[in-house]
Amino acid sequence: MKKANIIIGLLSVFLITLCSCSNENVDQAQVQLLKKIVEVSVDGSSNTTLLTYNGNKIVNIDKFDKHSEFYYTGDLITKIVVLDKTNQHINTVQYLYLDGQLSKITSSDNYVINYIHNSNGTVSYEKLTKDSNNNDVIINHGTLYFQSGNLIKDDKFLDDAGKGIIAENITSFEYDYKNNALSNILGYNKLLDYSKTISSNNVISSSEVSSVKNIVEDQVISAIKMNKSKHQYDSIGYPIEIVSEDLVFGGNDSKHLRSILFYN
After folding, report:
1. Among 25, 85, 94, 167, which residue's Cβ finds the most Cβ atoms within 10 Å?
2. CB 156 within 8 A of CB 113
3. Are 36 and 48 in contact (CB under 8 A)?
4. Which residues of 143-178 are buried (b: 16+ CB within 10 A; e: fewer)?
5. Are 261 and 30 in contact (CB under 8 A)?
6. Beta partners for residue 230, in sequence order
7. Please, what sign has the CA dihedral across residues 246, 220, 143, 114?
């Protein structure tokens, strides 16, 4: 009887371990890591972006015009070194966190961005530079609005627009309910300067409203730019093709036709 109990016990442990490994394999199979992007233009030409990882930590992103190296402290991205391939310029960007939330960005390109995470879920920011006398000069300031893990609006005021000029730029985003191709990169969603790409889902439409008010002449000039994106997804809801003028890592090109995405 004692031997039978031992056998049953060992069999139970084996089955539990087997189920655990099976579930682990399923979970790992579901974790998509974006490895390559092919950006295709209307004339048929294309550029390729390659992403390299260590586990689910991003190591580098290599684009046709830029190469970015990522460095972690624990689970947080604390430094990105960006090489501009056209002129060999290197920009080192340091990220500082407070209680796990981004609080400050310092760039070797002479700018600093300070962030304040508000109790209502919005994030206020202020971008500054140094003038020739080493004084702080505000470039812009604004507020980021989030909903369900997505950046839905960036309300920005341009402080360097000139004396007597109030310039505002409001960018709004709408999303699908599918998985963002970059959502499984550890710590990436903390990078507030990477705009919409840090969101949980994929942008299906965006609008940018720019307005410039001349206080002296009491005159306002406004403009609006809109863009829509059409997605195709794989069997577990990650985009494999995006038809849009927007590139995956930001920027807009009227000659851009689509982005083709490859995983794992």
Report:
1. 167
2. no
3. yes
4. ebbbeeebbbbbbbbbbeeeeeeebbbbbbbebbeb
5. no
6. 243
7. positive
Nearest partner of 77 among 55, 59, 52, judged by Cα: 59
| Residue whose C-alpha is closest to residue 188's, from 60, 81, 58, 92 | 58
Pairing of β 89-98 and β 76-84: antiparallel
Domain boundaries along the sequence of the chain? 1-30, 33-263
State which amino acid sits at residue 80.
I
Place of tokens 């794992």: 264
Q: What is the pLDDT of residues 27-55, one digit of tens each?
A: 444 589 999 999 999 999 999 999 999 99
One-letter amino acid at 133 equals: N
DSSP string, 198-236: GSSS-EEEEEEEEEEEETTTTEEEEEEEEEE-EEEE-TT
Residue 187: predicted pLDDT = 98
Amino acid identity, position 108 = S
| Residue pair 170/59 in contact by the 8 Å Cβ criterion | no
C-alpha span between 149 and 145 (Å, rounded):
10
What pLDDT was estimated at residue 248?
A: 92
Rounded to whole angstroms, the Cα distance separating 261 from 205 reads 19
The CB density around residue 222, as the number of other CB atoms within 10 Å, is 10
What is this structure's pTM?
0.85
CATH of domain 33-263: 2.40.160.150
